[in-house]
Amino acid sequence: MLGVWLLTAAIVCPQIKAQGNKPEPVPMKLKVGDVAPDFKLQYFDGSGEKDVTLSQYRGKSNVVLAFYIFAFTGG
Amino acid sequence: MKAFQQNLKKLEAADTQVLGVSMDSPFANKAFADQIGVTFPLLSDWGGDVTRQYGIYVDKYKAARRVNFLIGKDGKILEEQVDRDAIDPKKIVDACERKELSR
C-alpha cells in the first residue's frame, strides 16, 4: 500500500512542481509575419534630440527593435 | 543591449539597424548608452504609447516586457524573442546572417 502511494506521489509531484515553475506566458499581440506598426520616437545623440521612425528604414534595411525594461538594467 | 553591441558589426553587415526602446527619458537612455558603450540609438518611449501599440506593456511593472523584434525591409516581423529568451539575441543575429547568405 505504501509502495503504491509513493509511486503515485512520485508521478504526480514532479508535474505539480513543473506547473508551479511555469507561469502562464502572456501571448504576444504581434506575431511573426505581422506588419510592425510605424512609430516616431526620439533619442538624444549628444547634441540634441533626433527623431527616428520605423518607416524610414522601409525598403532599406532590416530593423531590430529591442525593448528593454529600464535603463541601467542588464541585457 | 550589450549583447547587441557585441554583434553590431555582424548585424550591420547584414543590413540591419539596431534600435533599443524603453520608457526612459532620452537623457537617461543617453547616460545608459554611454555607461555600457552602446553606439546605436536608444529610443525613448516616454509615456509608453509605442510599447502599448506593440502589446508589450506590463501594468504590474509600468514598463515594457523584454522583447526583441526583427523587422524585415518590407516592415513585417521576421523573428520575435520574448522575456528571458530575449537576453541572448543569437536567434536574431543568426536570422540576419542567414538572410544575408541566402541573397
How are the secondary structure elements laid out?
The complex is a heterodimer of chains A (75) and B (103).
Chain A lengths: L1 H20 L18 E5 L4 E5 L8 E6 L8
Antiparallel strand pairs in A: 1-2
Chain B lengths: L1 H5 L1 H6 L2 E7 L3 H11 L5 E3 L4 H5 L3 E2 L4 E2 L2 E5 L5 E6 L7 H12 L2
Parallel strand pairs in B: 1-2
Antiparallel strand pairs in B: 3-4, 5-6
General description of the model:
The complex is a heterodimer of chains A (75) and B (103). Chain A has one helix spanning 2-21, and strands at residues 40-44, 49-53, 62-67. Chain A is α+β, with helices and mostly antiparallel strands and 75 residues long. Chain A has a domain at 37-75. In chain A, strands 1-2 form a two-stranded antiparallel sheet. The longest helix of chain A has 20 residues, at 2-21. Chain A is elongated. Chain B has a single domain (2-98), classed as Glutaredoxin (3-Layer(aba) Sandwich). Chain B is 38% helix and 24% strand. The longest helix of chain B is centred in the C-terminal third of the chain and has 12 residues, at 90-101. The radius of gyration of chain B is 14 Å and the shape is globular. The two termini of chain B are 28 Å apart. At the A-B interface, strand 1, strand 2 and strand 3 of A face helix 1, strand 1, helix 3, strand 2 and helix 4 of B.
